[in-house]
Structures are given as structure tokens and as C-alpha cells.
Automatic annotation (TrEMBL):
Keywords: GTP-binding, Lipoprotein, Magnesium, Membrane, Metal-binding, Myristate, Nucleotide-binding, Transmembrane, Transmembrane helix
Designated name of the protein: ADP-ribosylation factor-like protein 3
Pfam families in the record: Arf (PF00025)
InterPro entries in alphabetical order: ARL2/3, P-loop_NTPase, Small_GTP-bd, Small_GTPase_ARF/SAR
PANTHER family: ADP-RIBOSYLATION FACTOR-LIKE PROTEIN 2-RELATED (PTHR45697)
GO BP, sorted A to Z: establishment of localization in cell; vesicle-mediated transport
Keyword Transmembrane carried by entry: yes
Organism: Aphis craccivora (Cowpea aphid)
Residues that bind Mg(2+): 65, 89
Signal peptide: none
Transmembrane segments: 6-25
SMART domains, per database record: ARF (SM00177), SAR (SM00178)
Entry-linked Gene3D superfamilies: P-loop containing nucleotide triphosphate hydrolases
Binding site residues for GTP: 58-65, 112, 168-171
Length: 229
């Protein structure tokens, strides 16, 4: 069963432009569903049944762009090579993932610079799954990561949204494993009734043309979670 990749929107610079584009996109989607609706089904339910939104957040340099690019790649395609250099996302990038069935999973990756993070809440609406990418090899910014995650959990728009924390860059010396990241971020204190939290270890294997097994596992989890919503 092949995976289908469909690029929706790519905004690599201009945060304000990105937010405006996102608002325009949501308006367009609402109108599209309204036009298709024959009055037999609520528009919000129709939208929910057709697409799922995965919001990917994380600090700058955590490896979000590389991870997302590999998550949506077709199995069997060449992966990222060592010559590929990703610049930090300034606005947001959107790609889609599907296993040929329903629903389509739209993956929204938002930039992680400090100047961009204040715009994160603009993208919370309609999120079905939250993915937070952590550079597990960087111990200097853990307090910032903890602060950002607590802020996310305090937003009503993300209430009950499943959270997938990716302990990325496991190939780096000194990288913390999933259990250690869970302890450092105090994820076990999150009430299970409010959020389903899962921590996975990931690495993107830039020196190889093959997608690392940990990335394939993330793809599998995202598709499974989306299909059961």
C-alpha cells in the first residue's frame, strides 16, 4: 500500500504572511465543504471526517523539517542525502500524508525561533494531533522546552488532543532516551484523562538513502491515531 504525498502550502518566510495565509486557507476549506454539503450533514462533521490536522512544533534546530520530509516520503523513495541542508522554517510548511484510505493527514510544521513561537497559538484551532519535537542531545534548552509544553497544555484549544513527543537526534552523542526525556519534561504528571502522551525516539539518518525505522514508526502512529478519531 503506497503513501501519497500532496503539497498544500509552503511558506518558508514571513511569519505574519504565514498566519494570514493560514486564516485564508481555513476560510477556503470551510467554503469548499459548505459548497459540497447538501444539508444532510453538519459542515464541521464533514470536515472532521475528510481530513485530520497534525501540528508539529518544537524549538529551532530540533530537526522538525527533516523529520516531516521523511515522514511523508513514499516508502522505497530515496531519503534525504547528506548534501541536503534544511534552513529553519520561518513561517509554516504543510504537506499531506495518506495510506490510500481515509482520512488524509495534513501535517503543519511551524517554525521554532523565539520570534515565531509567539504565533504558535494562531495554528492551534482544529488540531487533532500535536507532535512536539525535542533535540534530545541539547541539554541547554530543556527549561525552554518544558515552559513551551506547559504553555501548550494550558490552552483550551488543545484540550484532549493526543501528544506525540519525539526525542530526536538519537544518533548524537549524549542524546537522552525516551524515558529520560519523559522525566526531564515531567510528562508523567500530565493527567491521562486530559491528554494521551506518547514518547518516541527518532533519528533521521542523514548519511543514508534509507528512511530510519524510527521515522517509519512515527508515520505508522500518526496514521493509526488519525484513523481512530
Amino acid at each position: 500500500m503506497g503513501f501519497k504525498l500532496r503539497a498544500l502550502v509552503v511558506v518558508s518566510s514571513g511569519v505574519v504572511l504565514g498566519v494570514c495565509t493560514y486564516a485564508a486557507y481555513r476560510t477556503w476549506k470551510k467554503r469548499q465543504y459548505s459548497a459540497d454539503d447538501e444539508g444532510f450533514e453538519d459542515v464541521s462533521k464533514l470536515e472532521e471526517s475528510l481530513e485530520k490536522k497534525v501540528l508539529v512544533l518544537g524549538l529551532e534546530g530540533s530537526g522538525k523539517s527533516t523529520l516531516v520530509s521523511q515522514i511523508v516520503k513514499e516508502v522505497g523513495q530515496k531519503s534525504i542525502t547528506s548534501n541536503t541542508v534544511y534552513k529553519p522554517t520561518e513561517g509554516f510548511n504543510v504537506t499531506s500524508l495518506s495510506d490510500g484510505g481515509s482520512p488524509t493527514v495534513n501535517i503543519w510544521e511551524i517554525g521554532g525561533k523565539e520570534s515565531v513561537r509567539r504565533y504558535w497559538p494562531k495554528f492551534f484551532q482544529d488540531t487533532d494531533i500535536l507532535v512536539f519535537v525535542v533535540d534530545a542531545s541539547n541539554n541547554s534548552n530543556q527549561s525552554v522546552v518544558v515552559s513551551e509544553i506547559k504553555s501548550l497544555l494550558g490552552d483550551a484549544r488543545l484540550a484532549s488532543v493526543p501528544i506525540l513527543v519525539l526525542a530526536n537526534k538519537q544518533d548524537m552523542i549524549g542524546a537522552l532516551n525516551a524515558e529520560q526525556i519523559s522525566n526531564v519534561l515531567d510528562l508523567k504528571s500530565i493527567p491521562s484523562r486530559s491528554h494521551q502522551v506518547k514518547v518516541l525516539e527518532t533519528q533521521t539518518r542523514p548519511e543514508s538513502n534509507e528512511i530510519h525505522q524510527t521515522v517509519l514508526e512515527v508515520r505508522k502512529v500518526l496514521l493509526k491515531l488519525s484513523s481512530h478519531m
